[in-house]
Write a structure and sequence with these properties.
By secondary structure, this protein is an alpha/beta fold. It is built from 7 helices and 11 strands. It has helices spanning 22-31, 51-55, 59-64, 75-84, 96-131, 235-250, 295-303; strands spanning 9-13, 35-36, 46-49, 71-73, 142-144, 153-161, 166-174, 196-204, 211-219, 222-227, 269-270. Strand 1, helix 1 (22-31) and strand 2 form a beta-alpha-beta unit. The termini are far apart.
Length: 312
């Protein structure tokens, strides 16, 4: 549509850059069938507004808001209308009030993420201090390791021993560098903390980083901790100990932790973070598994094993 701004009267307030001067905007508006207003009155349909003028509630903005039919929109609305050859609908994407609200919401979200990250990092430091420094083995500071995806290697494995009426839990933890704060805390364990085995991989604050894999098992009436690797080890042997322990206790390789495989026997189970939260590195090409419903089992439960069709 050549005259995409036909029957529209536009006014401008604020600056949009040298290439988007008021003179250029005036020409573009008129060349596309619109009318340009020097003053804001009840004939104006749209006010093209800069973020600066909106935040400061410039006199032109206040004047436009006196008229309920004037839509205060961003420069993007005009540009997208000209490119698409039709006037765009005034959605939240273009309305200045909605844009500012969205920006404020994003900033608040970032502030919350930073606070959450700092809190999680500090918890990892405290855990390292409790587990390592309490043994007087080192005076260096350690923290919980997080990989490049933001996943913290603070993993809980759990197993219910029905015969003894207790829950056993394995807690795996890897502690990260302070310049890579995690976006979210590790997931809460799915079982009550009656009995627990925590396995932790600590990383030093100091660079080059050194590591230690540590585990502590506890259940009612029993508690003991030990180093799976010595303090001051390199990452590779510590991570290998971490993944080996995971496989020993769950029957699954670390790379299989999200595959929803069933393992026979009295093994420990791992409940990963929900989809959308950091869940750690996975092999290249890995895809989220799709749960398949066993129709025969479902039929047996619902029909008593008679199936979908009944004879006679």
């Amino acid at each position: 549509m050549k005259n995409c701004l036909e029957n529209l009267t536009l006014a401008i307030t604020g600056e949009f850059g040298s290439a988007r001067s008021h003179e250029n905007l005036r020409r573009w508006i008129k060349n596309n069938g619109g009318a340009f207003a020097e003053q804001i009155d009840d004939q104006v349909t749209h006010l093209i507004c800069s973020m600066d003028h909106w935040k400061k509630q410039h006199a032109n903005v206040k004047e436009a808001m006196r008229y309920p039919d004037i839509k205060v929109v961003s420069y993007d609305w005009l540009e997208d209308s000209l490119h698409s050859k039709r006037a765009r609908k005034e959605t939240k994407k273009y309305m200045m009030k909605s844009i500012l609200t969205q920006k404020r919401s994003e900033k608040a979200g970032k502030r919350r993420a930073i606070k959450e990250g700092v809190k999680t990092f500090q918890k990892g430091c405290n855990d390292a201090k409790t587990d390592l420094l309490s043994t007087k083995k080192t005076t260096d500071n350690y923290h919980t390791y997080h990989d490049e995806t933001g996943f913290g290697y603070d993993v809980v494995l759990a197993r219910a021993d029905l015969s003894k009426n207790i829950n056993e839990r394995h807690h795996l933890k890897v502690l990260p560098c302070p310049n890579h704060l995690p976006p979210s805390p590790p997931p809460k364990p799915p079982f009550l903390p009656q009995s627990k085995l925590s396995m932790k991989l600590f990383e030093s604050h100091a660079i080059p980083h050194l590591y230690c894999t540590y585990t502590r098992y506890s259940r009612p009436g029993r508690s003991a901790g030990e180093d799976l690797t010595p303090i001051g080890s390199l990452f590779s042997p510590c991570f290998a100990a971490f993944t080996k322990f995971f496989k020993t206790k769950t029957g699954l390789r670390w790379e299989e932790r999200l595959d929803k495989k069933k393992v026979e026997g009295e093994v420990f189970t791992y409940s990963p973070p929900v989809l959308g939260r950091p869940r750690g590195r996975m092999p290249e090409g890995w895809k989220e598994p799709i749960e398949v419903v066993d129709l025969e089992e479902e039929v047996d439960e619902n029909d008593g094993g008679e199936g979908f069709m009944k004879e006679g």
